[in-house]
Amino acid sequence: MKCELEIIIPVYNEQDNIFETLSNIIKITKPNFKITIVYDFDSDPTLNVIKKKFDDTRIFLIKNKYQGLNGAMRTAFENSNADSVILYTAEDHQNYDVINHMYEKFQNGHDIVCASRLMKGGDYNQTKEPFIKQFLVNVVSMTLKKFTNLGTVDPTNGFRLFSKEIIKKFPIESKNGFTFAIELLAKAYSKGYKITEVPSKSPIRKFGESKFKYKTIIYYIPWFLKILFMKLKIWINNYISIFIRKKFFIKDWEFERIIFFYINRNNIASFIIE
Hints:
single chain, alpha/beta, Spore Coat Polysaccharide Biosynthesis Protein SpsA, Chain A, 2 domains, 10 helices, 7 strands, disordered C terminus
């Protein structure tokens, strides 16, 4: 059977959360949706819960070939043949219904669908988040909303859907935390892929400890700046072209011929594209 959507759940000592999460995902999703559990260690007690409580052919277990969350996603992406994939966290008991909404957006032609806590209808429960994380999320959101047409106001949220084309075309370079999500967002945005969002809630962990680490914040910055600089580059190019047209009274079609000739003569097409 063709797999339309693969739901990827990285786990690390999530034995107290995984039963509720898997039970609800199985209940609300289609029979041809695949659920992939990516684990780091054979001794992880999460695996015992899954093996004892579930006998569902849609559930697959894959061992992380690399390390950490980014490594788990790399492992899952490399093994995936589904039309689309979603990252879902084991402690998230608030957003089961969002999975189907994201898939509907994908069916309507979008390449990335972001779960957004900050759009209308979303809920970002800031009282449960560390202050520095709240600050990062809000600053990035407000800045990109003001200066770009990114397609989402919540670019730091790792809960999102990617099309098969995105995960195969853009290998993950990031090494830390959820940074792969904003990395793929930046790369897709730079190439003009369709990005949208659906409202979601900020997960409230019932059991276990958060995997968030303060030091990972620094790894978001390069991708955040990349998105801003892409927009800045477009503005600069537009203003320069307008200035040249007005300064030298060049018509639009004449300006395009000049630029085309210059690009071909200097072999800088690849620079313009990148």
